[in-house]
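Q: Given only this backbone (231 positions), what sequence would you predict?
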């Protein structure tokens, strides 16, 4: 989290990222309560029924979490939206559920972004210059740590599990390439022209590549049509 510490390694008391994250998420949550379709983010109104607006709102959620060190990606977040209502093609329902009163294991974002919630506690630690909150690994002598607050928050746990599930699912579709790099077996730019190019490529017995062989050879094949008794 860039900017949390000064050059002397003390807390930067002007650091507002935790408060800014809570503000953004609370704005979005407020707009999703009830049947409202309008969300006010920093004075600009977004209609969640508009696909581009919906994706922009999701981007704001992702950026807010990333800013506080919760590194969920947009694909993993959409995976979570789908998981909440797998039989629905409308992610608005899932987002509203997630941000207001999630039915998924009783998980709610409220404990993270409310007054006296996780982000409020961390913001108060920043303002007071309490370095220990960010350096101790767990609660000690009745004092909490940032790591403990994150680890015990159910909403952050849900995001972490969604990220893990998405990475595992996508890794299964990958293969190990040169230099131990992971590559998709089917590239995202695998267009029709790419497929045709593959079909038109074959190897000769000496290992050389012959272009245009498969489809060219097929055009000379004489096909025999077998007809059954009914013609």
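A: Predicted residues:
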């Amino acid at each position: 989290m860039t900017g949390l510490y000064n050059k002397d390694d003390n807390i930067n008391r002007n650091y507002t990222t935790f408060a800014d994250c809570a503000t953004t998420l609370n704005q979005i949550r407020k707009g999703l309560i009830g049947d409202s379709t309008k969300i006010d983010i920093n004075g600009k109104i977004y209609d969640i029924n508009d696909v581009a607006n919906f994706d922009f709102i999701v981007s704001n959620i992702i950026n807010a979490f990333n800013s506080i060190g919760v590194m969920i990606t947009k694909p993993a977040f959409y995976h979570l939206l789908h998981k909440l209502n797998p039989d629905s093609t409308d992610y608005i329902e899932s987002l509203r559920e997630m941000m207001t009163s999630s039915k998924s294991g009783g998980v709610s974002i409220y404990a993270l972004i409310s007054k006296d919630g996780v982000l409020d506690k961390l913001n108060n630690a920043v303002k007071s210059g309490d370095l220990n909150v960010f350096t101790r690994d767990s609660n000690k002598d009745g004092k909490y740590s940032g790591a403990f607050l994150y680890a015990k928050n159910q909403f952050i746990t849900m995001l972490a599990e969604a990220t893990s599930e998405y990475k595992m699912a996508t890794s299964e579709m990958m293969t190990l390439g040169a230099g131990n790099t992971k590559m998709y077996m089917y590239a995202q730019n695998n267009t029709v022209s790419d497929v045709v190019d593959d079909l038109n490529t074959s190897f000769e017995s000496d290992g050389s590549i012959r272009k245009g062989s498969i489809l060219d050879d097929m055009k000379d094949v004489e096909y025999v049509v077998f007809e059954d008794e009914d013609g």
